[in-house]
Amino acid sequence: MEKETGFVGKAEEFLQMFKKGEEFTKELLKENEKLRYRIAQMEESIQRSADEARIKLYENRIGLLEEDLNSLKKRFRQVEEENKDFASKYIEVEEENNNLANLYVASYQLHSTLDFSEVLRIVLEIIINLIGAEKFAILLIDEKTNELVPVSAEGMAVSEAPKVKIGQGRIGSVAKEGESFFSDDLAGAAELNPLEPIVCIPLKIKEHVIGVISIYKLLTQKEGFTNVDYELFNLLAGHAATAIFSSKLYTQSERKLTTIQSFLDLLKEKPRK
Predict the structure, then answer these.
(1) pTM for the complete prediction?
(2) Residues 6 or more apart whose Cβ sits within 8 Å of residue 265
(3) Together in a domain, 246 and 154
(4) Which of 117, 150, 202, 218 could form a disulfide with 222, with the two C-beta atoms 3.0–4.6 Å apart?
């Protein structure tokens, strides 16, 4: 009986130890589960942190790229404006070069002949083509009468252009003072009054005025004058004045030479018997 009691006690003790081992194993499994869950949480946190850092990095990169893009857009707009400005200046320079080339050709034509009528014709063409005038007259000073006398005209008969005393009215003042006149109203009704031109340019050789160009009406497509036009006026006035004066002197000298030659020929003729 004592042996059986001892065996049963040991068996119970073994069962108790087994139960404790089982409980300890369960606790270990629970702790292991907790640890695995904690590890999973930590891994998820680390992953989330990595993702957040990566997102932050991407956001920073996107911000930098947007700044670069905005900078490029701003630079593009600046370059675009510069190109427009260059294109505008190129057109202006091209127009000025064309005008200067036309003036050079016109000046060459003016000084290519000493025929007075031909010179006046060339001056008329220059005023029409370069200045864009439709109605105008060229008046020269008659030293004997001290008045401006029309010698050529366009858009009107020469007889319709006025004879003006030096210093009288707008035309006479321009001839006396040697300063150009430009009306504020280029599209006005000045063409109705030949004494009131919208533009009046003195024909000058240095400071000596030999006549004026009186413009009464511009061509329809000519809305106003540019800086180049004013330069052309000044250059034209000098070249035209020189050409007109030279051709006029030459024509007068030719007439005198012809008269003298005719007189000499008469003297050389043998008297009739």
Answers:
(1) 0.60
(2) none
(3) yes
(4) 218
